[in-house]
Amino acid sequence: MRISFYGRLVDVFGRNLELDLAAPCSIGELRERLQAMRSDQGLGDVRVRACVNGVLVSNSHVVRDGDAIEFLAPVSGG
Amino acid sequence: MAFTARLEPDSLSVERETAALADAGSGAGAIVSFVGLARPSSETGEQVDQLVLEAHPSLTQRSLNEIAAAAVQRFAVMAVHVAHRSGAVAAGEPIVFAGAAAQHRRQAFDAVDFLMDHLKTDAIFWKREEGSKASRWIEPSAADRASRERW
Q1: What residue spans of chain B are helical by DSSP H?
Q2: CA distances from A44 to A26, A28, B77 (A)
Q3: What is the pLDDT of residues B32-91, one digit of tens each?
Q4: Which residues, in sequence order, are bridge partners of residue B101?
Q5: Does A7 contact B54 at a Cβ distance shorter than 8 Å?
Q6: Residue B75 and residue B106: Cα distance in Å, rounded?
Q7: Which CATH class, in words, describes the domain spanning A2-72?
Q8: In what order do the strands lie in the sheet with B50-55?
């Protein structure tokens, strides 16, 4: 699946990341897995929001292969 | 009452936006507009060559719509007009145009003040100041958050 990042998360993970997901997992589990890959705690910030298929979701939301997943760093405003 | 809330990826013409607002607010007794510019230096005094505004493909437009709609609902205005840059904005160039037309000046002033206080904290953008030495992500300041809480 493709995961996209916004704001300062791009500095850590790049704009997009391809990840093979063997089985469905929650957004919370996905955050932990990504953090372990980069040894970075940025995704643990409660202000980092997750968006799946265009809708903001909580950590308990379960994602499956084929979902469009985005992690949004805290916004700067306009 | 309708509003305009537009994301502008290329360039923002203050004259064009002002004319569009005047058209939308035809018959108004007051038109107020605000133009925000990219500052040439950071809060710590370093030179900034450009400000890069990263937008989300759907959420950014939605946030602009929500802020403009809230201003329409709250104030007795005839027109609300927001145009916001995304992408790289050179220092000194306009980032945002926010305007309102109303029968009387107070409603137009207040609507634009409200628009800017909400755009500064709630609009979905990620901003990065870029200079010759470094680049830096920026977040709303405590003053920005306090301004938003006034409403």
Answers
A1: 14-24, 59-74, 105-122, 142-149
A2: 14, 9, 43
A3: 999 999 999 988 889 999 999 999 999 999 999 999 999 999 999 999 999 999 999 999
A4: B31, B79
A5: yes
A6: 10
A7: alpha beta
A8: B87-90, B50-55, B125-130, B135-138
CA dist A56 and B42 (Å) reads: 32
Residue for token digits 């137009």?
B108
ipTM for the predicted complex: 0.88
Among the partner residues B56, B58, B119, nearest to A78 by beta-carbon distance: B119
Distances B21 to B16, B25, B128 between C-alpha atoms, Å = 9, 6, 29
Domains of chain B: 3-149 (3.90.1170.40)
A19 CA: distance to closest CA in chain B (Å): 21
Distances (CA, A) of B56 to B9, B39, B73, B89: 12, 23, 25, 17
Q: How many CB atoms lie within 10 A of CB A49?
A: 19
The CA distance from B64 to A47, in Å, is 20
pTM listed for this prediction: 0.92
Query: B107, B115 in Cβ contact below 8 A?
Result: no
Interface test with A, best of B66, B117, B126, B141 (most A CBs within 10 A): B126
According to DSSP, the β-strands at A2-6 and A69-72 are parallel
